[in-house]
Amino acid sequence: MKKQASSKSPKNPRPSKQRKPSYGQVMEFPQAKGRTVELVKLIANPDYHCLCIRFKDKTDLSVVIDSLFTFRANFSDWKTHDQRVIKEWQTGPV
Predict the structure, then answer these.
(1) For the chain, what is the HEC assignment?
(2) pLDDT tens digits along 24-53
(3) 52, 67, 91, 94: which one has the fewest Cβ atoms less than 10 Å from its Cβ?
(4) What is the pLDDT of residues 52-73, one digit of tens each?
């Protein structure tokens, strides 16, 4: 006589698959960590789109944005550990 299947879950279940986040690739820039920002510029010309962050030590982080992207930015306060948006910016496809 065959054993009946147990209704209990197996002792070693397979680990659940990690879902990919809904956003694309995330990039970090550790070279900017700890530096004091002096100026942030967005250049949105028809042929060139760039976000430039100038630091007080005269170094610069520039992010060039290809066309076909939309641009959205916000400046937020996280002091209470909840986001409070202070200002938002948005453009159509750049």
Answers:
(1) CCCCCCCCCCCCCCCCCCCCCCCCCCCCCHHHCCCCEEEEEEEEECCEEEEEEEECCCCEEEEECCCCCEEEEEEEECCCCCCEEEEEEEEEEC
(2) 777 888 888 999 999 999 888 888 888 999
(3) 67
(4) 999 999 889 988 887 776 667 7
Beta bridge partners of 85: 76
Strands in 60-64's sheet, in edge-to-edge order, are: 37-45, 48-55, 60-64
Both structure tokens of 46:
């028809």
Asked if 57 and 35 count as a contact pair (C-beta separation under 8 A), the reply is yes
Q: Which tokens is 48 given?
A: 């060139």
CA–CA distance from 21 to each of 6, 18, 25, 28 (Å)? 36, 9, 9, 16
| Whether pTM exceeds 0.70 | no
